[in-house]
Specification:
The chain is α+β, with helices and mostly antiparallel strands. It has 34 helices and eleven strands. Strand 10 and strand 11 form a beta hairpin.
């Protein structure tokens, strides 16, 4: 029997029996749209080829490659999944030009382009392996088969944070830079052409479909817009203004910078600058006009316009809308909008410059896209050195970061005081305040200037003390002076210098009460801050009064569900806890946590603070099984939002280790305590009270293990730090003395143990430590029967009861 002759479909090039062809087209191509489709990327199958009701008949082989399936096809060509059998066996993607498109000009351009593609060698570009011609003379080339998904889909599927999205975007920019250096302009950078695959457990972006449009002088994606006048080369949503211009002048590499900017915008915001539906419904000329003339909204503006969808977008980035808006404002808006400048001369000169600016943002360095602002650069310097190797660097960070807070407060004060004034006058006053604030800060750092002061040898305390001395210059502007006093007090507080923090906090409170009235929100802030200082000094009765008043003011002015109310609840709860009133502290902490989760979202650092504090309360109540998951969640949130070396992370590590010690999990506790100590010493300095806390807990661990010789020096160092920072009568100093007494008792030195206890117990009564240590601590069980010990306890408790009675009267 005579074998049927074969022919090739003029659209897709598939080889089928001639009897199944009609008019030079296969059945599939006859049913397709009359508008030419794309030559699809190696891993993006067309809708038609994935239709379960369609089973194409494939060519058996193209050159030495065995054809496995059709990945995608279009009017200009087809992409097949193929198998190379020799000299190595691997799966590849094979692109082939279709019949009817193989004119001499197209083939020449295709040959030139595939040679250029073969020259590229970058880990984030799909590699070209081979090239050749089919038996009918159509050119093809063989490239790496990328088993991945669109970059936007990958980021959303895995709920990558903003930082993680930026990290995965940087190699995309570097790959485009590599292509530009080889003379290749992509001209269609879209999520469909940037796939993410997983290699060695890590996501790797791969750019595909390089240069085909440029080689054939046609747009070969399904999104090409054709009209009778001509066609647009590129995808409208990602197209640069010069691409939309369609002049005879060819585009340059900055057209890819524009498209990268749009892709970055989409990764950050979860939406395109221009709504795709609106753009597609517009006529041909209107599409071109919008691309050329309409300015895209800033990322924060676009996010705010998305309504309920914004919450879903934020959740895909493991955050809430308010936090995402804060992340986008500033650096990321400047970088994105610079890349998308209408005027190509104002964009980044290269994609490597775009990548470098993103890296600078991730390192908290000034980005090139920002306005030339000294305030901005000063603030970025602080953020970059927040985890400095000395206490001076850490405190300087806090001081300079104050610039932003002060400016905002100055703006609010001006608005409240001059509400009836014209907008121009108000802006002038705000600018004047900001300039004076900057002048104050500039003068503050003269002590660290080698030509004017001590230079690098200046300590943080000397810098802050110098700032305090300069405050007289602001007496003519008392509200500005109050803001500066409040911030300098906070710096002393963070340094653990609580006695130094108290006077400026008191002065700021007095100024604000006099000028703003007793019910102003700034007064509530000062009350809250002074209450925290008094709590750390051990002045718990005084602290309670201020904390209650702060809470009352905030609830009245802001309503019961505001995040600032949650802060006051949290701080009042800590004071009550330190007083040993756990039954009162618990409901306050739970309400604070509830408010913060509702207002800020579950992944906010303040939520982690509430989780940590509630866990600590549970631990003190002996509810270790309830405390442990809260500590773990707090640790995870702080590490993700603040970074692995933040002092708050050290707090979680310290606290989690403490309950491990209580549970007898000593081997699990030790590495956590060591990491906590390392972070705190590096971030806060060796003499900070928080360092003493971790030293105390490490000593407790060694004591439980019987390593008394290792525990004792840690406790003595802890005591030295606490007595210097807090004073000898502070409960935390007394706790170190008590623990030294426990170690002495374990060594068999009863008299030495009683000596430590005699000094410690008077300052522990009435605190959260008292009942647990003196009545329940198994380490001193043998000491409770000692007459001298009982006498000490009895005298102290009688004195405490007498003092409590006199206070009530």
């Amino acid at each position: 029997m005579e074998q049927p002759s074969t022919a090739y479909c003029q659209r897709c090039g598939c080889k089928l029996p001639e009897s199944s062809h009609r008019d030079g087209l296969c059945q599939k191509c006859r049913s397709a749209s009359t508008v030419d489709g794309p030559l699809l990327a190696a891993d993006e199958a067309s809708t038609r080829s994935s239709d379960p009701g369609f089973s194409p008949v494939l060519p058996d082989r193209i050159g030495p490659y065995k054809i496995l399936e059709l990945l995608g096809e279009g009017g200009m060509g087809a992409v097949y999944l193929a198998e190379q059998e020799e000299p190595i066996r691997r799966k590849v993607a094979l692109k082939v030009i279709k019949l009817g498109m193989d004119t001499q000009e197209v083939i020449a351009r295709f040959e030139s382009e595939r040679q250029a593609l073969a020259m590229m060698n970058h880990p984030n570009i799909a590699q070209v392996h081979d090239a050749g011609t089919t038996e009918r003379g159509a050119p093809y080339f063989v490239m790496e088969h990328v088993a991945g998904i669109r970059i936007t889909d990958y980021c959303d599927k895995h709920r990558l944070s903003t930082r993680e999205r930026l990290e995965i975007f940087i190699p995309v920019c570097q790959a485009i830079q590599h292509a530009h250096q080889k003379g290749i302009i992509h001209r269609d950078i879209t999520p469909s052409n940037v796939l993410v695959t997983v290699q060695d457990g890590k996501p790797v972006p791969k750019i595909i479909d390089f240069g085909v449009a440029k080689a054939t002088n046609q747009r070969l994606t399904e999104k090409t817009v054709f009209t009778q006048q001509g066609y647009l080369i590129g995808t409208p949503e990602y197209m640069s203004p010069e691409q939309a211009e369609m002049t005879r002048l060819d585009v340059d590499t900055t057209t890819d910078i524009y498209s990268l900017g749009v892709l970055l915008y989409q990764l950050l915001v979860g939406a395109l600058p221009f709504d795709a539906g609106t753009l597609r419904r517009a006529g041909y000329d209107e599409i071109r006009r919008m691309i050329r003339e309409e300015e895209p909204p800033k990322p924060t503006t676009r996010l705010s316009s998305l309504g309920k969808l914004a919450k879903e977008i934020a959740e895909r980035r493991r955050t809430d809308v308010a936090s995402l808006t804060k992340d986008l404002r500033g650096d990321l808006e400047w970088v994105t909008m610079k890349a998308m400048e209408k005027d190509r001369t104002r964009r980044y000169a290269s994609s490597s410059e775009l990548a470098a600016d993103i890296e600078r943002h991730l390192k908290s360095e000034p980005v090139a896209a920002c306005p030339p602002s000294s305030t901005y650069r000063l603030r970025k310097f602080v953020r970059r050195h927040r985890m400095g190797v000395s206490i001076a660097a850490a405190s300087v960070v806090v001081l300079i970061a104050f610039v932003v807070t002060t400016v905002v407060q100055a703006q609010r004060i001006v608005r409240e005081r001059d509400r009836a004034n014209q907008e121009r006058e108000r802006a002038n006053q705000e600018t004047d305040q900001a300039k004076k604030t900057l002048a104050f800060l500039t003068g503050t750092f003269e002590v660290a200037n080698p030509r004017k002061g001590k230079g690098p040898s200046a300590t943080a305390k000397e810098i802050i003390d110098g700032a305090m001395m300069k405050l007289d210059a602001t007496k003519g502007q008392p509200l500005l002076q109050a803001s500066l006093l409040m911030t300098l007090s906070e710096i002393y507080d963070e340094m653990g210098l609580y006695d130094a923090a108290e006077p400026p906090a008191k002065s700021a409170l007095g100024i604000r009460e006099e000028l703003l009235g007793p019910n102003h929100l700034d007064v509530a802030t000062s009350l809250n801050n002074l209450a925290n200082i008094w709590r750390k000094q051990g002045k718990l009765a005084e602290a309670v009064s201020l904390a209650k008043r702060s809470l009352e003011l905030r609830e009245k002015a802001l309503g019961p569900n505001h995040p600032d109310v949650a802060t006051s609840l949290n701080n009042l709860a800590i004071i009550r806890w330190r007083q040993g009133k756990l039954a009162e502290a618990g409901p306050l902490l739970k309400r604070s946590l509830e408010l913060r989760e509702k207002a800020l979202g579950p992944n906010h650092p303040d939520v982690a603070t509430s989780l940590n504090n509630l866990a600590t309360l549970y631990a003190d109540q002996g509810k270790l099984a309830e405390a442990e998951p809260l500590y773990k969640r707090s640790l995870e949130t702080w590490e993700r939002t603040l970074g692995p070396n933040h002092p708050d992370v050290a707090t979680s590590l310290n606290n989690l280790a403490s309950i491990y010690v209580d549970q007898g999990k000593l081997a699990e506790a030790e590495p956590l305590l060591k990491r906590s100590l390392e972070i705190r010493e590096k971030a806060l300095g060796p003499n900070h009270p928080d360092v003493a806390m971790t030293l105390n807990n490490m000593a407790d661990l060694y004591s439980d293990r019987g390593k008394l010789a290792e525990a004792e020096p840690l406790l003595k160092r802890s005591l030295e730090i606490k007595e210097k920072a807090l004073g000898p009568n502070h409960p935390d100093s007394a706790l170190a003395l008590y623990n030294l007494g426990v170690v002495a008792l374990k060594r068999g030195n009863r008299s030495e143990a009683l000596g430590y206890m005699r000094r410690a117990i008077p300052h522990l009564v009435g605190t959260s430590y008292w009942k647990t240590l003196v009545e329940e601590d198994s380490d001193i069980a043998t000491l409770r029967s000692d007459p001298e010990f009982r006498r000490i306890v009895t005298v102290v408790e009688k004195n405490a009861a007498a003092n409590d009675g006199s206070e009530k009267k």
